[in-house]
User: Fold this.
Amino acid sequence: MTPFEEELRQALKRREPAADFTARVMARAAAEDAKRNSGFWFSWRLGLATAAVAVLTLSGGVAYKQHERSLKGMAAKRQLLIAMRITGTKLQLVQERVKESEQEAQ
Amino acid sequence: MKRSLLKLAIVAIAVAPVWAAEDFKLPVSLEKLAERATETVDVTLDQSTLALASGFLSKNDPDEAEVKKLIGKLKGVYVRSFEFDKEGQYSKSDVDAVRTQLKGPNWSRIVGVKSIKGENSEIYILKNGDQIGGLVVLDAEPKELTIVHIDGNISPDDLGRLSGHMGIPELGKAKKNKSDKTPQAKPDKDEEQSEKES
Assistant:
């Protein structure tokens, strides 16, 4: 056996793994799994948060629009009732003056 | 083609003043009176605002329910009312700016009352076939000037339904007055007086 063959035989000789090899492999696999899961949860939560913000913004916008419309509507109603009261008062006044005028004519 | 366009143009020119005469607008010159007034009411409600207001009128409140029915046919409600602390704060030209617009063929002064105290009240209606297409109330007093313009179909029955609500009088009595001719006999006299004044 030449020295080269001897070196080759030594290099390819079966060696038993260390006693904690299985434990280390399993620990590393678990760590990789946890890392992968954590990334998934992070992106899922980010998506959920984005959707929640979008829904809140949208519903907030709709609520604001409704509130704004309600304020405008109430203001318009107040103006309308004022206008009707003035119209009523003036028509009443004219009617009274017409009556007075008739009485004076009689 | 040119002839038909020419005819169309002639018809448009002929009809335009009639349209313009019926299109009543509160004069912009009235705005300056607000500076001198102690109290001003400025109400401008176009059709869309009336529709918006209508949605907020309660069906359970008798006053509001009647107003809701009435405004369905209206195109606009405009009110300018000025109260002054002394006389002479508005001029005859301010009132004439309103009257001039009501001289169109479809406008009729149905009531005109002038008192010795200088109170001058007039009601004009816009005839739209058998219906009333608009109403203008002009009340000029020494310390107060009020102009109300209700644009749109408004019948005496509509106003009659408001009787007892919002302080609007029963129009049945007003109709009687109108048929007595007393209020209509007044205008000519009033106009003569105002011409003499001017």
Notes: The mean pLDDT of chain A is 88.
